[in-house]
Write a structure and sequence with these properties.
By secondary structure, the chain is of the alpha+beta class. Helices cover 46% and strands 16% of the residues. The chain contains seven helices and four strands. Strands 2-1-3-4 form a four-stranded mixed sheet. Helix 4 links the parallel strand 3 and strand 4. The protein is globular.
């Protein structure tokens, strides 16, 4: 199989998911060394889980199939430009290359509202907070930091 075949699979998964109505029309697959190691479709409606996006499901599937949390060396093929949550998960999984079909503007055109999240994250990065979108409040840091201190000193910890 080649890159076009993998993208065709992601699009076929999105089409099949549209027919099933498990969630939005999104599909993804993860490839390592030319082999498919994970697949996912958007199952937000089916699972009643707002995090059940195609890319997240594909990452979970690949990690399970490979027995690791680290997808270094993998590529992701997705039917649409990843949302901010999925972009973060892709980065955390150490996937360095992503191929996508539809653009984020195409997703907005069919009713998916990612732009306000991109805007929110950009503004937060610049020090501007919009409490109407998300109200973040720090509390009990003195207590919480004690666990972090123990973790920092733990010689057996597995960092990721």
């Amino acid at each position: 199989m080649n890159e076009k075949d993998f993208m065709d699979l992601a699009i076929d998964l999105s089409d099949d998911n549209f027919e099933k109505n498990y969630g939005g029309p999104f599909g993804a697959c993860i490839v390592k060394d030319g082999k498919i190691v994970g697949k996912g479709i958007n199952q937000v409606i089916k699972d009643q889980d707002p995090t059940a996006h195609a890319e997240i499901k594909a990452i979970r599937d690949a990690c399970k199939n490979l027995g690791t949390h680290d997808l270094t060396g993998c590529e992701l093929y997705t039917s649409c430009y990843p949302c901010p949550m999925c972009l973060s998960a892709i980065i955390w999984a150490n996937i360095k290359k992503v191929y996508y079909g539809n653009t984020k503007e195409d997703a907005a055109d069919i009713g998916f509202r990612d732009d306000f999240i991109y805007d929110y994250m950009f503004k937060v990065g610049k020090g501007h907070v919009d409490n109407n979108i998300l109200n973040l409040n720090s509390m009990n840091r003195e207590q919480a930091i004690e666990v972090f201190k123990r973790y920092k000193e733990d010689k057996d910890k597995i960092t990721y």
